[in-house]
# Entry
Amino acid sequence: MDIRNRMEQVVSKENVLTEEPMKQHTTFQAGGSARLFVMPRNEVETAQLVRICREESVDWFILGRGSNLLVSDKGYDGVVIWLQKYLNQCHTDGTEISAQAGVMLPAVAREAQRCGLSGLEFASGIPGTVGGALTMNAGAYGGDMSQVVKEAVVLTEDGALRRMAREELMLSYRHSAVPDQNLVVLRVIFSLTPGDPVDIKAKMDDYNGRRREKQPLEYGSAGSTFKRPQGYFAGKLIEEAGLKGFCIGDAQVSEKHAGFVINRGNATAQEIWSVCCYVQKRVKETFGVELELEVKTVGEFVRADQ
# Structure
């Protein structure tokens, strides 16, 4: 039995797609197709799919919103397990919110505000899922996941379900134990603080207003393209290197915020990648600072300077 048939027995035939265009599932709106694109309906099915991938020795990865991902134009010859369609439930119990990995982070922030719980205001404009946010310890405006996560339910590399406390998750700047230990995030439990819903909403509105004013939200992007180098701001270095507005095809360093590489409409993934590589090269030459991509890449890319 081939891997597709095995997966169809787990999630039903309509939830296994072939040659699915990844530009429809990433905020960069670029990239080729995935060989198999599978949508588990619950956490048990997710665990079964991961086990099949490991037994068949095929490449695979977990996808949420695709807001921090660049997929090669040549596509991905593996299995994409998409959690956002079905694993998207959350509920509140006292000062805690339990959210499945596929829930959008702004939805959790709105639920917290509705229930008079403070702590997730920073997350109200981050366009990713709970699972992705935990994986990279997403943050904004002085807040990040490490400040509000109590624990997470994960699938370990050997296929076991495990609860991990915040301390075990090793959350630091744009980093967690999730990729290091090959974990799959299934659910996150947030521990929040009681607050005034009016004040919480005002703070969320302020953050989102600043985001709209300063960031190129009208274009496809993956948010901040580069990690903040110690002692510097990536966007400031890029701007001072004279790269604001630099473009290759429809891929461009945003004229609104130099820390964003954007898709002006029809950029290929390779063009986006080439802009990123050129930015890294110029900033290194100009300031001696290595810019590290915050965006995850999947598939084959060719550096322009090779």
About this structure: The chain has a mean pLDDT of 96. Helices lie at 3-11, 43-56, 105-114, 130-135, 177-180, 197-214, 234-240, 269-287.
